């Protein structure tokens, strides 16, 4: 018997990471950021200079990679290491974001990462965020949330984040376009596309604060029997 699992899926910029981190902290669950895993592999492919079309080389790279997630004291994000190198910050750069969906669409990459994710979830007690958690990684999760918001709102939030980090060079229009393109790609790929699980609860966060969304999820979790 395992402890419960919460699956949180949704498009880019819906607030998954912030909300998941807070839910994990409140309920004392392990936070599994699966997007960070795909980003780490994308970073490794980029750094290796392998062509994004070289399926064989990417498959070999991912099966031999040592990907480590090192939980940090909340509210700090989990540290991510690949082949011993700490990539926690570099996996958030626009260069990685621009190619991650292409990498995440590959069968070899998904197979390796999903296997590792399922190992983390073996004894439960985790809240995992991504695109295919409720549909493919943990289809038997006790609580499934589909977190969404309008593309305008999501772009605005990303833009605010960038501004706070002192990176104002990217326009709101550009962010909106990038988010839309990534969502389209993630929703239309062949393997485990982004979609709401039939038994997921949809939360539209357009008019909700982070606190309100977090509270809703905690309430739903506490109602589980
Ligand atoms: O959540 P985040 O924006 O960090 O995810 C980066 C990318 O990783 C997504 O756009 C998607 O292509 C991929 N991803 C995925 N499956 C997941 C999590 C992320 O395909 N479970």
Automatic annotation (TrEMBL):
<feature type="region of interest" description="Cytidylate kinase">
    <location>
        <begin position="1"/>
        <end position="225"/>
    </location>
</feature>
<comment type="function">
    <text>Catalyzes the condensation of pantoate with beta-alanine in an ATP-dependent reaction via a pantoyl-adenylate intermediate.</text>
</comment>
<comment type="similarity">
    <text>Belongs to the cytidylate kinase family. Type 1 subfamily.</text>
</comment>
<comment type="function">
    <text>Catalyzes the transfer of a phosphate group from ATP to either CMP or dCMP to form CDP or dCDP and ADP, respectively.</text>
</comment>
<feature type="domain" description="Cytidylate kinase">
    <location>
        <begin position="6"/>
        <end position="222"/>
    </location>
</feature>
<comment type="similarity">
    <text>In the N-terminal section; belongs to the pantothenate synthetase family.</text>
</comment>
<protein>
    <recommendedName>
        <fullName>Bifunctional pantoate ligase/cytidylate kinase</fullName>
    </recommendedName>
</protein>
């Amino acid at each position: 018997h395992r402890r419960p699992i919460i699956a949180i899926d949704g498009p880019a910029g819906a607030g998954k990471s912030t909300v998941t981190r807070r839910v994990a902290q409140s309920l004392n669950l392990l936070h599994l950021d699966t997007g960070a895993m795909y980003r780490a592999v994308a970073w490794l492919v980029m750094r290796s200079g392998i062509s994004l079309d070289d399926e064989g080389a990417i498959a070999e790279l991912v099966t031999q990679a040592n990907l480590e997630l090192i939980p940090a004291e909340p509210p700090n994000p989990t540290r991510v290491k690949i082949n011993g190198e700490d990539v926690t910050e570099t996996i958030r750069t626009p260069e990685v974001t621009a190619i991650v969906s292409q990498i995440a669409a590959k069968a070899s990459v998904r197979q390796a990462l999903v296997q590792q994710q399922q190992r983390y979830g073996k004894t439960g007690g985790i809240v995992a965020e991504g695109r295919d958690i409720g549909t493919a990684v943990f289809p038997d999760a006790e609580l499934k949330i589909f977190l969404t918001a309008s593309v305008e709102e999501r772009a605005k939030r990303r833009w605010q984040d960038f501004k706070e980090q002192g990176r104002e060079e990217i326009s709101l229009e550009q962010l909106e376009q990038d988010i839309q393109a990534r969502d389209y790609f993630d929703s239309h790929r062949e393997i485990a596309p982004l979609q709401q699980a039939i038994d997921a609860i949809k939360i539209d966060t357009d008019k909700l604060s982070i606190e309100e969304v977090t509270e809703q999820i905690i309430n739903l979790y506490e109602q589980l029997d």
